[in-house]
UniProtKB/TrEMBL annotation:
InterPro entries: CCD81 (IPR026295), CCDC81_HU_dom_2 (IPR040673), HU-CCDC81 (IPR028034). The gene is Ccdc81_3. It comes from Alca torda (Razorbill). Residues 11-91, 102-148 form the CCDC81 HU domain. Pfam families: HU-CCDC81_euk_1, HU-CCDC81_euk_2. This is CCD81 protein.
Length: 148
């Protein structure tokens, strides 16, 4: 299982993140910007995207407009995988992704082509960033992850 590698029993040493050490901050940001664009394209096509620590999806919601008008809409959500939630004892709002939503993994080839990086670099960058994220969860550090 892919998500198992993000369940860390001990703190993460820098030797576990060799790619992040080699890349500049701006290169890491470019990889994640391209990853965000890929996720956004999938969400616009009503597909969910599984990234190893959880799933991005669009779920139906309602907005109340005026006094009694209810507007159906959709909102993007991130649902952490259940192993991760249990392992790190995370408190998350319950999110139900509709069963009919098709789910796709990250397409590293497509993401790499978008930023003109080697596919292997993109894959390692994403993997090590998620490891770093898991390490921060493990050490109860505050983490801010922003997606455009």
């Amino acid at each position: 299982a892919k998500m198992m590698k993000y369940l860390l029993f001990s703190s993460l040493g820098p030797e576990k993140l060799p790619t992040l050490k080699e890349l500049t901050t701006s290169e890491i940001c470019r990889v994640w910007a391209a990853t965000s664009r890929y996720i956004r394209r999938q969400l616009l096509q009503k597909r969910a995207v599984e990234i190893g620590v959880g799933t991005f999806a669009v779920v139906p919601a309602c907005a109340t407009v005026g006094e009694d008008e209810v507007l159906p809409l959709e909102r993007p959500v991130f649902k952490p995988c259940k192993f991760l939630k249990k392992f790190y004892k995370l408190k998350c709002a319950k999110t139900k992704i509709p069963d009919e939503t098709p789910c796709v993994p990250l397409d590293f080839e497509e993401i790499a082509a978008d930023v003109h990086f080697r596919q292997e670099i993109v894959e390692l960058c994403v993997h090590e960033t998620l490891l770093f994220f898991a390490g921060a969860l493990r050490d109860e550090k505050e983490v801010e992850f922003s997606f455009k």
